[in-house]
Amino acid sequence: MKITRTLASCHTPDGALLVLQEHDGQHYLKIGGVQLMSTTASASEQTMAELACSDMPAAKPRILIGGLGFGFTLRRVLELCPADAIIDVAELLQEIIDWNREHLQAVNGLLLDDPRVEIHRRDVHELLDGKQRYHAILLDVDNSPDPLVQKGNARLYNRGGLQRVKAALQPQGRVVYWSANRDKHFAEALGRVFKQVESVGAKAYPQAKKFTHTLFVADRE
User: Fold this and answer.
1) Angle, to 10 degrees, between the axis of helix 159-167 and the axis of helix 184-191?
2) Of 121, 119, 109, whose CA–CA distance to 72 is shortest?
3) pLDDT for res 146
4) Run of H or E including 1
5) 95 to each of 119, 142, 158, how far by Cα in Å?
6) In which order are the strands placed within the sheet that holds 117-120?
7) pLDDT value, residue 208
8) What does the alpha-carbon distance between residue 147 and residue 116 come to, in Å, rounded to a whole number?
């Protein structure tokens, strides 16, 4: 029988226990015993990147990724973007950055050293200050618009947060929110701020028969 190994753990700013585990060559991230992500189910993160980068400028696009996770979104963005792209990655927890370098090098950890990438150990909300405009913003900082990882993430999903995201986008820019759940009210809230909004079902892994996740896609005029 193959055992589950706990590789590392820490507490979030709200005090919840965050645990990185490995079982049979796969990695899992759990918070309070609830699985947040795994290396066995990364298709929706890659779909997120494809939606965000579907209309990138041919030269010098600037992208903001909120939430590093296991780096699958970052990997797909790098695959889709030109050599002169600038990709800012905001990750609140230093431990997540460290675990990618120390325990997840064989997954996507080495991508943190790609010359196009700058890692910011900050809350992504702080980078949405309007000082920098992005062609695409990808937000995968929590489990859904109903925060699980950190209560403070709720400010990204309220009207003020949506306005803040909009102000940080270039004209015709796009934001994509990852969610484990459908949320009709959040889609409606997006529609009151953005020109065009779509809720896209996403599979956890390519062979899945059902769309278990939702990607909220919003375009600025």
Assistant:
1) 50
2) 109
3) 61
4) none
5) 13, 16, 27
6) 117-120, 86-90, 62-66, 134-139, 169-179, 213-219, 196-202
7) 86
8) 30
- Name the token pair of 15: 């005090």
User: Distance between alpha carbon 73 and the CA centroid of its chain, in Å?
Assistant: 7
Asked if the model's pLDDT at residue 96 lies above 90, the reply is yes
How confident is the prediction for the chain on average, in pLDDT?
92
Identify the residue whose tokens are 């820019």.
173
Distance of alpha carbon 64 from alpha carbon 75, whole angstroms: 13
Q: In what order do the strands lie in the sheet with 17-23?
A: 4-11, 17-23, 26-31, 34-38
- Helix, strand, or coil here: 8? strand
**What single-letter amino acid sits at 139?**
L
Joined tokens for residue 97: 């950055």
Token pair of 76 as six digits: 């797909």
CA-CA-CA-CA torsion sign (141, 111, 39, 100): negative
